[in-house]
Design a protein that fits this description.
The chain contains five helices and no strands. By secondary structure, the protein is mainly α.
């Protein structure tokens, strides 16, 4: 039964992009768990908890992305082997400094945001408002998390853009 009022062949382009995002999220999720397990040093308590919050959020998004693919009447990718082949996010050494962990997470966020934009573009082309809405919310949340992590990497003397935008 076609309950979506969209053609399967049009949705296939969206599903392909969603499956790439699903693969990216799986690798990202595992890297966050690794960071959570392997963090040491003065920032242990803050980052241990932050990485746990982030991997729990990623786990929920993994499920929602897979369920969106199912809603579009396709099967989601589900083999680890396929995630590793498909993802643009690469595995990394688990042993690194807290600063390097956060920098790597920010690098992964850039990849996730780029893939989310690809999903939105394909979904918009076929008027798939459900996918646009879902992924649009993810973009907003990930941008905010990225801003906070980026702020964490700064020294107190660092500044944001000093240009003041004046409204005339």
């Amino acid at each position: 039964m076609n309950y979506l009022n969209m053609k399967d062949e049009e949705l296939l382009k969206v599903v392909v992009e969603l499956n790439i995002l699903l693969a990216d999220y799986h690798i990202y999720y595992q890297k966050l768990r690794s960071n959570h397990w392997n963090i040491i040093g003065k920032n242990f308590f803050d980052l241990h908890e932050k990485f746990e919050d982030m991997y729990n959020d990623a786990r929920v998004k993994i499920d929602e992305i897979a369920e969106r693919i199912l809603t579009l009447r396709y099967h989601p990718m589900s083999k680890l082997e396929d995630y590793l082949k498909t993802s643009s996010i690469l595995e990394d050494t688990p042993i690194k400094t807290d600063q390097d962990m956060v920098k790597e997470v920010l690098k992964d966020h850039k990849i996730l945001l780029k893939q989310m934009s690809s999903v939105i573009k394909k979904a918009d082309e076929v008027s798939d408002e459900g996918t646009v809405d879902l992924i649009g919310a993810y973009i907003r949340e990930l941008e905010k998390t990225s801003w906070m992590l980026n702020a964490w990497t700064k020294k107190p003397s660092d500044k944001l853009n000093d240009n003041i935008v004046e409204v005339s």
